Amino acid sequence: MNQFLKMVNDLDDAARVLPRWPKRSVEGPSGGGGGSAVLVNVSGLDLAREIHAVLVPWCEQVAEERGVLEPDPFLSSWQCTPSGTWVATGGNTSEIAKWLRQNATWIVDRPWYVDEMWPELLEVRRRARGLMGIWSAPRAMRDLVVELASSGGSIDEMREVARARRADA
Fold it and tell me: Is the model's pTM score more than 0.70?
């Protein structure tokens, strides 16, 4: 459950900071008069909206299966797709994340959590970290690099050790 809580916290933080991450100037109104520049990371804003759009359907699924109230629809902005389906396109991601955290114990026990939800959240977090430039190597890779550096062995020897460990697991 701790991994899930950390994931939700990471996505909440990313949605909050991505629009202001390394900024670039975009011409447009900013309330400071015509033609003034607004500092915004357009890619970050898009990804922050996507994070929200990924989390909301999971809240809806949890609410439906669990028989509880879903988060207030006014926490999201909505857009109708050509097929007539309404989808969240942004909003108060912190409140959506809070709702997910409150239901975390129930969520991690669902069969779809590992197969469907986790990979989707992992992918959007990977993309957020990539945009922010804070991608971190998986723990197994870091451990392998540290072991290689401290052992004095060759990379080929370390690969064999890693393969043997995977086979034993």
Answer: no
